[in-house]
């Protein structure tokens, strides 16, 4: 395993794996790091085990962000159809449910296997069970030290998730925060329920 790469990604969930495979397939040397022993555990249980992987109607208006222009740019460059194309290349069947929700026909493992295959195609390296991460930035590079080793990269992506229940960073228990085992501290923001309804002005209804 290389200890010096172009891109180091902390968090081997769906977002981290997508980031890793994209960077690697663009010619970057990528290391994907996670504190667990398995990749993307939440993918396995999402959508009742069938992974609700996207929504045909997803648009910038469905996202809350301090910079709404980012959502517009990101979703214009990578649409649900791009991800659907990847599924079709891997022969994964899917179906639409209510309001454009897309689910696998079979198991959520199909999505995980697809992402893992795409990571392997790009040559992504893995460092699992990498607990106790500390991060430093000096001399134009990042250094991430874990119990599994010390890793360096010119670019660092933190895809470790956010606060699940509490928005009080300092009072979160281990079950509420992916940051407890790492000295990277997220910026707390206003929490919203998972399912909300908006009125026409963009306010919560």
The fraction of residues assigned to DSSP E strands is 15-25%
H-E order: EHEHEHHEEHEEEE
Count of DSSP H/I helices? 5
Gap between N and C termini: 51 Å
Q: Flag low-confidence runs.
A: 164-181, 188-205
The strand count comes to 9
- Structural classification: alpha/beta
Shape: globular
Helical fraction: 10-25%
Q: Which radius of gyration do the C-alpha atoms yield?
A: 18 Å
List the SSEs and their pairings.
Layout: E1 4-10, H1 14-25, E2 30-33, H2 41-45, E3 52-55, H3 68-77, H4 80-89, E4 94-96, E5 101-104, H5 109-122, E6 125-127, E7 134-138, E8 141-146, E9 149-158
Helix pairs in contact: 1-5
Compact description:
This protein has helices at residues 14-25, 41-45, 68-77, 80-89, 109-122; strands spanning 4-10, 30-33, 52-55, 94-96, 101-104, 125-127, 134-138, 141-146, 149-158.
Please give a structural write-up.
This protein is of the alpha/beta class and 205 residues long. The chain has helices spanning 14-25, 41-45, 68-77, 80-89, 109-122, and strands at 4-10, 30-33, 52-55, 94-96, 101-104, 125-127, 134-138, 141-146, 149-158. The strands form 2 sheets. A 6-stranded mixed sheet has the order 6-2-1-9-8-7, covered by helices on one side. A 3-stranded antiparallel sheet has the order 3-5-4, covered by helices on one side. Helix 1 (14-25) packs parallel to helix 5 (109-122). The longest helix is centred in the middle third of the chain and has 14 residues, at 109-122. The protein starts with a strand and ends in a 47-residue tail after the last strand.
């Amino acid at each position: 395993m290389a200890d010096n790469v172009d891109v180091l990604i902390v968090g081997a969930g769906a977002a981290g794996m997508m980031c890793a495979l994209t960077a690697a397939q663009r010619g970057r040397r990528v290391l994907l790091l996670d504190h667990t022993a398995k990749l993307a555990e939440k993918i396995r249980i999402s959508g009742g085990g069938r992974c609700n992987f996207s929504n045909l109607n997803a648009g910038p208006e469905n996202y809350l962000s301090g910079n709404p222009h980012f959502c517009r740019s990101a979703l214009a460059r990578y649409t649900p159809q791009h991800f659907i194309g990847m599924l079709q290349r891997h022969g994964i069947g899917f179906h639409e449910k209510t309001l454009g929700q897309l689910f696998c026909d079979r198991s959520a493992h199909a999505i995980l296997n697809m992402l893992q295959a795409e990571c392997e195609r790009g040559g992504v390296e893995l460092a699992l069970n990498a607990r106790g991460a500390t991060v430093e930035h000096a001399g134009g590079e990042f250094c991430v030290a874990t119990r599994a080793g010390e890793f360096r990269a010119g670019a660092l992506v933190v895809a470790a998730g956010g606060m699940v229940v509490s928005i009080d960073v300092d009072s979160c228990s281990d079950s509420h925060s992916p940051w407890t085992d790492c000295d990277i501290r997220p910026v707390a923001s206003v929490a919203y329920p998972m399912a909300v309804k908006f009125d026409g002005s963009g306010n919560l209804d």
